[in-house]
Design a protein that fits this description.
Helix content: over 70%
Strand content: under 5%
Number of strands: 0
Membrane topology: Multi-pass membrane protein
Pfam families: MatE
Organism: Hallella faecis
Shape: globular
Radius of gyration: 21 Å
Number of helices: 17
Oligomer: single chain
Distance between the termini: 37 Å
Order of helices and strands: HHHHHHHHHHHHHHHHH
Structural class: mainly alpha
Subcellular location: Cell membrane
Protein name: Multidrug-efflux transporter
Length: 461
């Protein structure tokens, strides 16, 4: 349906300074977005199926994963930020037709990324027994949470390689391979989960082992495609010896550090949100966890468009094409908002069925569906925040956008959530979430309109 040769030709036109028609721009956005959307949705489906399989084990099993879920997302997002610091540089060098330096950055990313992920795995393993109690868990679910988190921590090197290889391929304009491998990972996850949860009867620990196995079996072909096969970034294409360049690492830190700090503080805010929800009981914990999982199925298309924005803005920025860079930013944001407005309607209409798929417990289903419908109204602005942030990161503008996201999360969402939870329970927490996402999307739209994220490209032009 979608032509790899066609998107490669259009990306080459960007690098070579050729003009693109309006139709070609939209075609390129669609060509790059659709595979990434499918990959994002498939990845969420993996967690969706995980949650459904565990959900049928009862509320305590569901709550045990929900308790540490925000922490696992936090750790994964930090590894994603590490990958981002290098992949943005790769996109800029590719846009400038300097493929040799793009591959040199890739080599540095492998060394630094693997070392950092091993360190994180050791930290996670050292705190796995205490973490559930720090998060407010009780003795009925803490041991299950602890076992799940330990296995996840040991999976982190594979998670890093998955993020890194996927980001590098996307920076080179290759969306199809990461998408197909993400779909494969989802299928493997279902198969391994069934084996470990039901056949071997390992319960919550089985869910973690299933996810670990899926990551390890997927990252091998993903690494092979990036390191050996891709026609731009494959390391075998280098004819010059590898030389360590501290500037690549410094630039990666400059890009990644604000993103990582944001992810840490945003993840910490999610943990605080879990602490706000925890006193409301196991039903509220499980409903909150399932609603987050179900909602992620609806906002992942926004991240798919964001991936396309990262590639297009990153390469046009590297090519020094200011007007085209701005044009792609506006177009991708508009497409993202339209797609997620549609997904918001789907989420509102099918909220009971989405939560019912995850849990047979009627009380959890009713509460989860109620909060999902509250969130549905904020989805277009959530898309604006997602894609606008991707645009800023692709241009290397990470500090102020990170500060904006943190202010929105900590000063708007958590403050409102704490106040409203006292009177309205979990509904109040999700009203706060919807309000904050609308606020965040609005301030990001204002930043894109003002154009300050493009200051660096003007110096090159």
């Amino acid at each position: 349906m979608f032509s790899s040769k066609k998107s490669d030709t259009l990306l080459a036109k960007i690098r070579n300074g050729a003009q693109l028609t309006g139709r070609e721009k939209l075609e390129l956005i669609v060509e790059l977005s659709i595979p990434s959307m499918l990959a994002q949705i498939t990845t969420v489906m993996m967690f969706f199926i995980d949650a459904a399989m565990v959900g049928h084990l009862g509320a305590a099993a569901s709550a045990s994963i929900g308790l540490v879920e925000t922490t696992t997302w936090l750790m994964g997002s930090i590894l994603s930020a590490v990958s981002l610091g290098f992949s943005v540089q790769v996109a800029h060098f590719i846009g400038a037709n300097d493929f040799t330096r793009a591959r040199q950055v890739f080599r540095h990313a492998l060394v630094c990324g693997v070392a950092f992920s091993v360190l994180m795995a050791l930290v996670g393993a050292s705190i796995h027994q205490s973490l559930p109690y720090w998060l407010g868990g009780k003795d009925d679910i803490a041991p299950m949470s602890s076992g799940y988190f330990l296995i996840f921590s040991l999976t982190l090197p594979a998670v890093l390689l998955f993020h890194l290889m996927s980001a590098m391929l996307k920076s080179a304009g290759e969306m199809r391979v990461p998408s197909l491998l993400s779909i494969m990972m989802c299928g493997l996850d279902v198969a391994f989960n069934y084996l470990f949860i039901y056949v071997l009867k390992l319960g919550v620990v089985g869910a973690a082992l299933g996810t670990m196995s899926a990551y390890f079996f997927t990252v091998i072909p993903m690494a092979w495609q990036a390191i050996c096969k891709n026609k731009i970034i494959a390391l075998r294409l280098d004819r010059t010896p590898f030389v360590w360049m501290g500037s690549y690492v410094r630039n990666a830190v400059k890009i990644s550090f604000p993103v990582a700090v944001q992810n840490i503080l945003m993840g910490s805010a999610q943990v605080v949100s879990t602490l706000i929800v925890a006193p409301l009981g196991n039903v509220a914990i499980a409903a909150n966890s399932f609603a987050i999982t179900a909602e992620s199925l609806c906002y992942m298309p926004g991240y798919g468009v964001g991936d396309a924005a990262t590639t297009l803005v990153g390469q046009t920025y590297g090519a020094g094409r200011s007007d085209l860079c701005k044009n792609f930013a506006h177009l991708t944001i508009g497409v993202g908002m339209l797609v997620m407005a549609f997904m918001g309607v789907v989420m509102f209409v099918f909220a009971p069925e989405m939560i019912g798929f995850l849990s047979p417990v009627e009380e959890i289903r009713l509460l989860g569906a109620m909060v999902l419908r509250i969130e549905a109204f904020a989805e277009p602005f959530f898309a604006a925040a997602i894609v606008s942030y991707a645009v800023c990161v692709a241009s290397g503008d990470t500090l102020k956008p990170a500060a904006m996201s943190l202010f929105s999360m900590w000063c708007v969402r958590l403050t409102l959530a704490y106040v409203l939870a006292q009177s309205y329970g979990l509904r109040g927490v999700w009203v706060a979430m919807a309000t904050e996402l609308t606020f965040r999307g609005t301030i990001f739209l204002l930043r894109i309109r003002r154009g300050s994220w493009l200051k660096g490209i003007k110096a090159k032009a």
